[in-house]
Amino acid sequence: MPDAVFLSGDRVDLRPIEEDDLEFLQREINDPRVWRAIGGSRPINRAQEREFFENVVCDDDSVNLLIVADSTPVGTIGFNSIEWEPQRAEIGYWIAPEHHRHGYGTDATERVVRYGFDQLGLHKIEARVFEFNAASRRLLESVGFTEEGVHRDEVFIDGEYQDTYWYGLLEDEWRSQTE
């Protein structure tokens, strides 16, 4: 696998997603503990994963990185829905279940938030989390995100409607907590 580190963290490195990573991505995205947490509901085959790589990962209006711990892929993180005029983006991430509770998600999120404010010139970073995903809500809050609202019964997962919690972090809030 490629070793081109884009951002280094305390626990993980973040590097561009490459074609060699598609097998890992497809395997993990089909794990119910991953697809459920990110709102997926259908299996992803190899062709669909390649299409995601070509149309989303390689798109100029998003940033998608592989989270790597000790040369082992453990998840993904990035900005999708980057809106350049209002300087806003939505952050998204997942960590493979066998790598939960090691601080990898927090470390990666801190690095990507810093990159978003320092390098991309973002004013606001947003995130959405389903009501059952308490771990992700805690992660966002630990990095400084504030819960901004709830969209009730927004998604249908596991046979029932789930609320979506929206979080936001403004650049000046982030800078004041990192000084």
UniProtKB/TrEMBL annotation:
PROSITE patterns: GNAT (PS51186)
Single GO MF annotation: protein-N-terminal-alanine acetyltransferase activity
GO annotations of cellular component type: cytoplasm
Top-level taxon in the UniProt lineage: Archaea
The N-acetyltransferase domain, residue ranges: 12-172
Gene3D superfamilies in the cross-refs: 3.40.630.30
Coiled coil regions, renumbered to chain: none
The protein, known as: GNAT family N-acetyltransferase
Taxonomic placement: Archaea, Methanobacteriati, Methanobacteriota, Stenosarchaea group, Halobacteria
